[in-house]
Structure to design on (522 residues):
């Protein structure tokens, strides 16, 4: 399902997510019926089955639930190694993201992280996470 | 209570399993598997009135199991065409339900692959048009790695403990002439840990094979099975469990944990047995960690204790949990789908007996599992002698 504005596959469901990422915003679906976030975007809220939901910007912070350093490129042409993480957001959902700017010895489950935006292998801008700097 | 329509596996066949099978096609390989299973069952091909087979083509209606009708007892009474239903535990459970319900009497299940799994060089689970996986470069092994890493974090499970599982099962395959990795020197934990990292903490040798091959099996009613020469193996129990669709969101250990336990409990309940009765374990082994997790899931050890549980000789022929004695998917075969049937076939053969050096003496109960993708699903069978 190639889209004229992008040279990678997007769907009607995901398009706003990638457009927001290109503008430096991490958004996620939030249900208007049960008021809960869910991810990935689906036609209906995965908590209450309502189809009435809205994209809402997140605070952009989270914690690494788990991570893996990928050494074997899943698709030819991807540069390795890179760190794939399952990141939990306080809004109440978890998502895949790359972990960047993190020395290997600092990788840990529970690591506090904040969102940043970087190009993926195919050129699109994606939300990524980096270790959260202590607030001053 | 036993019924004349209870499903029984009466014929099994594995083609040659090898890294590549030059000159073969998926379709012709599957025909070999089907003919082999029919011969093993000692039935006439026209006895088959239910079909859950892939249709790789060329020819026929692409992907439609009904394309097999001319070769069997047409008109067929039942077909299933989905690639996850034409194989393994899911195939056996759905065909078994159809047989029990009287929709058909004799079903053939099977799939095969010759040629590469994909032509792009992408890892399994990636490059398949799955948006959230492709964007971030995940794959099946990345899924399992995320679960394994969290297990290490919470319980102190070590790469050495996982590598031990891989070494034991790979050594089983080394001595099984039908395994893709038959022969060679014994595999050590050091070999596993020295192999290239794929998705930390999983090394190449922690991960299952990618090879070519096929498998098929025949099921019929208990009543018909009585008249056949081959020893039938009863599907005494079975169940499935699905947590979420594969390849969308990251697998979180807190969701995965002991996924499959409810299914296993239901299956043992149907069979009137418990895990203590199991003589042979044919567990899904896409990677070393998943085997360890399944022993926790089975309740043979506590959550987080899998690493200690699988240590030593426990998973060998001489241990109290003989596991994947054929080499499993780590050294036996993984083709995409036919390894799911392969798990059932090893259980059936162990109960039939006569497997030579890897035979579990007087095996009466086999536990079979299929699972996948960071354990987003698990299917199980309890097989017993008729």
């Amino acid at each position: 399902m190639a889209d004229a504005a992008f040279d990678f596959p997007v769907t009607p469901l995901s398009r706003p997510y990638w457009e927001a990422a290109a503008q430096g915003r991490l958004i996620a679906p939030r249900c208007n019926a049960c008021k809960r976030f869910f991810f990935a975007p689906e036609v209906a809220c995965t908590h209450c089955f309502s189809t009435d939901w809205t994209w809402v910007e997140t605070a952009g912070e989270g914690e690494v639930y788990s991570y893996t350093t990928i050494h074997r490129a899943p698709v030819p042409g991807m540069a390795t190694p890179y760190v794939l993480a399952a990141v939990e957001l306080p809004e109440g959902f978890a998502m895949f993201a790359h972990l960047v700017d993190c020395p290997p010895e600092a990788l840990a489950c529970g690591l506090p992280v904040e969102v940043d935006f970087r190009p993926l292998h195919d050129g699109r801008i994606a939300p990524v996470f980096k270790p959260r700097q202590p607030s001053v | 209570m036993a019924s004349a329509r209870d499903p029984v596996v009466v014929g099994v066949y594995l083609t040659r399993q090898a890294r590549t099978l030059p000159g073969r096609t998926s379709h012709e390989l599957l025909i070999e598997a089907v003919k082999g299973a029919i011969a093993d069952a000692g039935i006439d091909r026209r006895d088959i009135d239910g079909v859950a087979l892939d249709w790789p083509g060329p020819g026929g209606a692409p992907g439609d199991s009904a394309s097999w009708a001319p070769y069997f007892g047409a008109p067929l009474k039942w077909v299933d065409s989905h690639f996850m239903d034409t194989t393994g535990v899911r195939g056996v459970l759905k065909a078994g339900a159809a047989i029990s319900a009287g929709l058909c009497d004799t079903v053939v299940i099977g799939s095969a692959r010759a040629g590469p799994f994909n032509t792009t060089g992408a890892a399994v689970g990636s490059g398949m048009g799955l948006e959230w996986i492709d964007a971030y470069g995940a794959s099946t092994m990345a899924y399992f790695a995320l679960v394994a890493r969290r297990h290490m974090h919470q319980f102190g499970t070590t790469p050495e403990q996982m590598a031990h599982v891989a070494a034991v099962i790979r050594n089983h395959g080394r001595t099984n002439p039908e395994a893709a990795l038959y022969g060679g020197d014994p595999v050590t934990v050091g070999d596993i840990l020295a192999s290239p990292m794929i998705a930390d903490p999983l090394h190449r040798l922690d991960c299952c094979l990618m090879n070519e091959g096929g498998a098929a099996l025949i099921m019929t009613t208990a009543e018909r099975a009585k008249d056949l020469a081959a020893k039938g193996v009863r599907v005494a129990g079975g169940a499935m469990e699905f947590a979420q669709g594969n390849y969308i969101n990251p697998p979180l250990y807190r969701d995965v944990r002991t996924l499959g336990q409810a299914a296993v409990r239901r299956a043992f309940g149907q069979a009137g047995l418990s895990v203590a009765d199991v003589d042979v374990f044919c567990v899904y082994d896409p990677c070393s960690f998943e085997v360890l997790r399944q022993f926790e899931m089975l309740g043979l050890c506590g959550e987080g204790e899998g690493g200690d549980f699988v240590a030593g000789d426990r998973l060998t022929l001489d241990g109290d949990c003989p596991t994947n004695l054929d080499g499993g998917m780590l050294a036996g075969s993984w083709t995409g789908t036919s390894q799911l049937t392969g798990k059932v076939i090893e259980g059936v053969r162990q109960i039939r007996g006569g497997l030579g050096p890897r035979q579990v003496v007087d095996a009466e109960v086999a536990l079979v599992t299929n699972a996948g993708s960071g354990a987003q699903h698990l299917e199980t069978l309890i097989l017993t002698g008729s």
In short: The radius of gyration of chain B is 20 Å. The interface with chain A takes residues 120-123, 125-127, 129, 131-139, 141-142, 145-147, 149-150, 153-154, 196-202, 204, 248-253 of chain B (CB under 8 Å).
